[in-house]
Every structure is written in C-alpha cells, then in structure tokens.
Amino acid sequence: MANATAAAEPESPRLTRLLGEVHARGREALDLFWRELAQEGAPLVEPVPGAPQERLVTVVWREDRPVAGVYLLANRVTDKHRARRGMMRRLDGTDVWYVSLRLPLGLRCGYRIHPFGPDDPHLTPDGPRSGSSRGLPDDRMDPFNRHADGPFGSLIELDGAPSLTEWTEAAAPSPAGRTDAFDFTAADGTGYRVRRFVPDTGPSAGAGLGLLVVFDGEQWFDRYGITGAVTSAVAAGRIPPLAVLGIEAGADPAARMRQLGASTPFIDMLTDELLPAVTAELPGWAGPRRTVLCGQSLGGLTALATALRRPAAFGTVLAHSASTWWRPGMTGRPQAAADGSETWLYEQASAAPVGDVRVRVDVGCNEGTMVDDLHRLHKLMEARGFDISLNVYTGGHDHSCWAAALIDGLADTFARKDAPVR
Fold this sequence. Notes:
By secondary structure, the protein is an alpha/beta fold.
C-alpha cells in the first residue's frame, strides 16, 4: 500500500539524527525520543535553510497496531485535493510514522491523525479515498500536542499566529453571570433554540452593556467555550463587558443551510423578533450601535447578508470565511466552481443601499477561490462607501482561526476612537 514504508532519509534534521541514534543504540534511543516528545510537545518545528519565513513542521505518530498507512489531516493543508501530502511514512526500522511539511510563519491549523488498518477500504494507492475526516473510522488527536485536550484539538501553531489565549488559557476566570438556554417561537411558527449569557457587570459597564450575537450557538457555547473567552477578554481589558446570544443551527446540514443560507425570513426574524425580545430583558443594553453580529462559513454569508439587508440592526458585523459559493435555491455546495460570473453576495452588495454598519471580513489564505471572491467584494463595498475591512489570515476554514478573529474583531470594534458609546 502507498507510503507503507520509506527508507529514504527524512527531511527533518531531528528524525535524521534519531535514525542514526537508533542504528547505534537501538530501542533505548527510540524510547528516549518518545519521552522527549512527551515532554517537549509536538509537532516538531525546525528552520528551513534559506527560507526564513517558513518552518519545517513534522507530525509523528507512534505505531500501536498493524497499519497499512497513516494519514495526517491538516485543515486546508493536507485535506481535499491536497490529501496526498498528508500521507505519512515509516522511519526505517522504528515505530515512528511521520510527514514533514514546509509551512509559512503565522500559520495556525487544526489537525488529526488517521491510521488505516490492513485492507481498510478508505485507503487507496494514492492516499485516503476522501480528503475529509468524515467517514474515516480511526480518527485521533495527537497525544503529544499540548492543545490536544483543548477546545480545538491538536493544533499546528507557528510564530506570528494570532493569539488564542482567551480560549485556551487554563487559568481563565470563570464566567461571572447567568447562562441559560430557551426556545423561541417566531411569528411564522418556526422554533429556534437559543443560548444566552448575561455577565454580572455592576457599575463597570460604563457606556452600557454590549451584545454579541453568534450563529451556530451550540458549538460556540458547548464546544469552544465562548462565555469563558469573552470573560477572559473583558478581564484582560481587550473588550468591554458583553452579553452573548447564540442561535443554534443544529447538526443536520440541510436544516443548517435552510437557516443560514442568507434566508430572508431568518434575517427578518432575527432583527424584528428575537433581538427586540432579548434586548428588552437585557439590563443596561447599550443599543444597536454596540451590538455585534458574528458568523462563520454559511453563518458568515448570513452575517454579510444581514449587514446588507438590515444594516440598522447591528453596529458591527464580523464575517468569517463567508460561503461565497452559495446562491438561492442551493441545497449543498456545488462540486465545481462557478463559471466566472460574480457571486450572489457581490450582486447583493452592488444593489444594496449603503448603511451605517461596520463590516469586518476575515478569510484564510488557504481557502482557494473564496479569497479572491472576498477581495472583490471588499473592493466593491469600499468603493461604494461601506465601512468595511478585509483581513486575510494564514490558515484555512478552521474554528481555531475564527476564534482568534472573533476576539480580535471585537477588540478592534471597541478600540476604534470613533466607536459609538450610546
């Protein structure tokens, strides 16, 4: 099977040294290597001669059962059409499987390791049958990675990557306030599950209590710990006190697309029904100018559509990796890119009236045509007079990147000298 063994010398200087040590001292050298890795953490990160803006990143796996191959899935680095890059090799005569990648400084990406047993139908001579973690039966975090037990799992983080301190800091303060969940029924009878966090602000709120509204609320509240991250950012002085509202989208992809596919009824429900109902019970709410809407992927699409359709409802919109491929009527992502016509978002932005809402768009440099789509959208909206900025980070379609962009976007919003305070 492809890449089952490889006697060629590895690119990594550390693994080259290990190979010599194993030949000289046998199992003793190998055991020492694994102990050092457990202490120092993974992946291995080494300089690239003549390329100061790159690092050689080596992910290793310790064989614990017979395998036909091992695959590293690194978000937008070795997934999708790049999957073959993620196939590991065995270090000759050892239980070490590895893959080395030259990666740019500033990169952050999540990764997982997939060992394939003998005759596993998911493994082909060219690598994994699918470049996605979906459907691969043995799916593991890297036990040597210091983030493996954290909210984002195993991470490759190189110097210059935006801070994730608020999300991963073990000593983060416990959220002081009230967290609850409730069911909200819209006027058309549609039901929504909503999460809510209201901090104990006391007199420190100053200009009033801001509000952050996020899509995919179940993920941000349950899996990633948004209330703790916001509390940490407030304690660090990066942002003012904020309540957080999270609208659940659910696990069903079709239902999520119906809700977050720039749905006009959903946008109108959010701005005309849910938001007024919640803010009426929010003590000291500072008003729409200090209310922020944030979404990712399809949620980023819907956040931008909300900024265009209902600009007065929010002071700021943060859109991460917005799904520019989407058009009305779609029930799934198309297999092929559009034929050169402009995106639906671009068409909407061409015709929408310029509103008094700030828009910050974040997208990863590894997200393919989406980057060009959003550059064109930014150029159009800026030329038309929208208050819009575009940040291209070094990464992909990744919650760890979006989490950093979320706190950075909030800090930027409230740090601006002309930030409204009413």
